[in-house]
């Protein structure tokens, strides 16, 4: 791999640039205070995180709708904690969560500095499975929207990563050659394997530091990108 041939850098957004875990925890803290939900946020998140992960896997495979994801992940979490919440309460919390999530816009460590450096050398792009109406707001509110030449969402593409059609759409929009492009993301299946199968180079951001054996370039911090790009 000749890294000096790269011209286009594609990023996933959540968990890759945008600090989803931190921003999500802050959103739940605010919601629980407002709605007087007497549950420790830390205890809730222990239960919620794996449930949310499973719902996103189902969403990627079209097993659940966006609405079912937003409702189901909260319903199952409260049920697991044996906390009684009405459907009306859960729907209110689901709406408030999106609202408060966008009020917190922390990036992963060194995110802005890395984007500032890379944007001077490459054309930067986003490919995300996140919801259309939310992802643009995240980038705008966190002050990184201007770094990106194109943004491709799964709702726009009609399919979700790792489906090849979303990578095809992103490359077409950006007029990028896959052989001169690299995809950076935290999800091994959706971001890395999906992009690799479509012919892009890849860098796996292992934010959970799982240290699993992979055939791809693996980093644990965004700043390590500068060793390659």
Description:
The structure is a single chain. With 229 residues, the protein is of the alpha/beta class. Helix 1 (20-35) crosses helix 4 and helix 2 (41-60) runs antiparallel to helix 3 (66-80). The protein has 2 domains: 3-18 and 107-227, Rossmann fold (3-Layer(aba) Sandwich), CATH 3.40.50.1000; 20-101, DNA polymerase, domain 1 (Orthogonal Bundle). The protein has helices spanning 20-35, 41-60, 66-80, 87-101, 111-119, 132-141, 154-157, 164-174, 188-197, and strands at 8-11, 123-128, 148-153, 181-185, 201-205, 217-219. It is elongated, with a radius of gyration of 18 Å. Helix 9 links the parallel strand 4 (181-185) and strand 5. The chain starts with 7 loop residues before the first strand and ends in a 10-residue tail after the last strand.
DSSP helix fraction: 40-55%
- Per CATH, the superfamily of the largest domain is HAD superfamily/HAD-like
CATH topology category name of the largest domain: Rossmann fold
Number of domains: 2
State the CATH architecture of the largest domain: 3-Layer(aba) Sandwich
Using the coordinates above, name the CATH class of the largest domain: Alpha Beta
Q: In percent terms, what proportion of residues is strand? A: 5-15%
Task: Give helix and strand order, one letter per element, not per position.
Answer: EHHHHHEHEHHEHEE
Major sheet, described briefly? 6 strands, parallel
The parts where pLDDT drops under 50 for at least 5 residues are: none
- Radius of gyration from the alpha-carbon trace, in angstroms: 18 Å
Figure out the total of helices.
9
Structural class: alpha/beta
Instruction: Tally the beta strands.
Output: 6
Spatial arrangement of strands, main beta sheet = 3-2-1-4-5-6
C-alpha termini separation: 12 Å
Shape: elongated
Mean pLDDT across every amino acid position = 94
């Amino acid at each position: 791999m000749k890294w000096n041939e790269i011209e286009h850098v594609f990023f996933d957004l959540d968990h890759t640039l945008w600090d989803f875990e931190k921003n999500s925890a802050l959103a739940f803290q605010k919601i629980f205070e407002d709605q007087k939900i007497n549950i420790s946020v830390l205890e809730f998140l222990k239960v919620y995180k794996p449930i949310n992960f499973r719902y996103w896997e189902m969403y990627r495979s079209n097993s659940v709708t966006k609405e079912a994801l937003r409702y189901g992940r909260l319903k199952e979490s409260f049920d697991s904690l044996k906390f009684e919440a009405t459907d009306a309460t859960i729907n209110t919390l689901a709406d408030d969560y999106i609202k408060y999530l966008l009020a917190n816009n922390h990036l992963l460590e060194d995110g802005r500095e890395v984007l500032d450096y890379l944007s001077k050398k490459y054309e930067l792009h986003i490919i995300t499975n996140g919801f259309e109406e939310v992802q643009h707001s995240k980038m705008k509110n966190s002050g990184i929207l201007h770094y990106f030449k194109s943004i491709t969402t799964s709702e726009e593409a009609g399919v979700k990563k790792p489906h090849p059609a979303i990578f095809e759409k992103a490359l077409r929009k950006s007029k990028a050659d896959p052989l001169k492009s690299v995809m950076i993301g935290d999800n091994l299946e959706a971001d890395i394997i999906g992009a690799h199968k479509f012919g892009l180079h890849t860098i796996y951001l292992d934010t959970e530091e799982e240290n699993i054996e992979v055939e791809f370039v693996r980093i644990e911090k965004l700043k390590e990108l500068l060793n390659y790009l």
